[in-house]
Amino acid sequence: MLQKHILVVDDDDLMRRSVAFNLEQNGYRATNASTAEDALNIAERDKPDLVLLDIGLPGMDGLEALRSFRDLIKVPVIFVTARRRELDEILGLELGAEDYITKPFEMSVLLAHIKAVLRRVSASQTEKEKTEKIVVGDLQLDPLAHTTSLSGNSLELTRREFDLLHTLMLHPGEVLSTQDLLANVWGAEYIGEPQVVYVHIRWLREKLEDIPEKPKRIITIRGVGYKLIPNED
């Protein structure tokens, strides 16, 4: 699975750094900010998968920041609150946070909340991905019709080639590791068999690239994985 990016927003330095450290120890990528303004700037440059947002922040407070995270950046938010009164206010306003947790909290409890929200959001996104057409440059893919085209010309792909291209097109410009591709396209039972990916990448290149030996669409990032580059030609 792709490593999830969590943005921790709290003006308590010790709390913020401790949470970020524990998240990284549990397999997440964590960044942090002490103000909502800084957090929004970070999120615009490096979109998180989830935001842990303290309510009582200096400057723009968490309630106000939620609107930007939800409506502009479109990321799920877990509210962190120190007082029950604030929690009642959140629930009453129904501002759209995915979840909440009250201070002080056990890290195991926070991790459980995070996993639940990410699982719920992922399930919702997966349903959309199953049905929505995808366009990346001159490549088009229709999951429902199971069709693909390049510059308007239909492509004949095997099921695995289709699933592999679908996965790459869902993350244009991002590097996906061989293990990510194995897990998402073939399943856990294929972990440790990277040659399966190598072969199917070669077959895809033969159908997508002008010169398969010098690919310009599916790029190898040596020692890391593969990246799909949008091509408008």
SSE layout and pairings?
Layout: E1 5-9, H1 13-25, E2 29-33, H2 36-45, E3 50-54, H3 62-73, E4 77-81, H4 84-93, E5 99-102, H5 107-131, E6 134-136, E7 139-142, E8 147-150, E9 153-155, H6 159-169, E10 175-177, H7 178-186, H8 195-208, E11 218-221, E12 225-228
Parallel strand pairs: 1-2, 1-3, 3-4, 4-5
Antiparallel strand pairs: 6-7, 7-8, 8-9, 10-12, 11-12
Structure description:
- With 233 residues, this protein is α/β, with parallel strands linked by helices.
- The protein has 2 domains: 5-128, Rossmann fold (3-Layer(aba) Sandwich), CATH 3.40.50.2300; 132-228, Arc Repressor Mutant, subunit A, CATH 1.10.10.
- Helix content is 45%, strand content 21%.
- The protein contains 8 helices and 12 strands.
- Strands 2-1-3-4-5 form a 5-stranded parallel sheet, sandwiched between helices.
- Helix 4 (84-93) links the parallel strand 4 and strand 5 (99-102).
- The longest helix is centred in the middle third of the chain and has 25 residues, at 107-131.
- It is elongated.
